Each structure stands twice: as structure tokens, then as C-alpha cells.
Amino acid sequence: MMRSIYIFLFVFISTYNIAFAQKTDKLDSLCRLCNEAISDNDKVYALNNLANYYYTNKFSRQGDSVLQIQLRIAELSNNRDLILKTYFDNSIASISSWSST
Predict the structure, then answer these.
(1) Which among 11, 38, 50, 89 is least buried, having the fewest CB atoms inside 10 angstroms?
(2) Taking the chain, what is the end-to-end CA distance rounded to the nearest angstrom?
């Protein structure tokens, strides 16, 4: 009986570390895309992907701050398409109903 518990704990711990490492790799790649973006269009789309990642993983505060940066870039570029992309993208739909206003 104790042997099966040890095996279960070993499998649980090893799979937890693998899953956690994949999340940091995804976040690092999204942040790298944001830093490497040159044009305003590329920056807005890269920040949009990062905000979607944060909202999908229930990091509302980080998602909100990325959306604020995205909106600031879109408004300074004075591009109507980028502003509409920021306001009406699907990342807002990822916010759960229990989140505060």
C-alpha cells in the first residue's frame, strides 16, 4: 500500500514540474515577441496574444496592465483598426464572471 502511494506522489510531482515548465516557456516566448516587435501593428498584436494568455490562465491583473499598454500604443499610433482591435477583441470575453469590475 505504501509503495503505491509513493509511486502516485512521484508521478504527481514529476508531471507538475513538466506542466509548470511549459507555462514559463510559453510566457517567455510571448514576452520575447512583444520586445522584438518594431511596428505599432506588431506590438499591438503581440500584446494582444500576451493578454489572452494572462486571461486564459486567470491572471487578471497582469492582463489588465497589458491591455492598458496595448491601448496606449494603439491610441498613440492614431490607427483606428488597432484601437478597435484593442477594445473589441476576444480577450475581454475570457474574464470570468466572478472578476471584479
Answers:
(1) 38
(2) 49
C-alpha 89/C-alpha 67 separation (Å) is 10
DSSP code string of the chain: -HHHHHHHHHHHHHHHHHHHHHHHHHHHHHHHHHHH--SHHHHHHHHHHHHHHHHHTT-HHHHHHHHHHHHHHHHHHT-HHHHHHHHTSGGGGGS-TTS--
Can you tell me the mean pLDDT for 13-35? 68
Give yes or no for a contact between 23 and 57, defined as CB atoms under 8 angstroms apart.
yes
The answer to whether 86 touches 74, Cβ cutoff 8 Å, is yes
Q: For the segment 53-65, what is each residue's pLDDT rounded down to a tens digit?
A: 888 888 888 888 8
Q: In this structure, what C-alpha cell is assigned to residue 65?
A: 496592465
Residue pair 66/50 in contact (Cβ under 8 Å)? The answer is yes
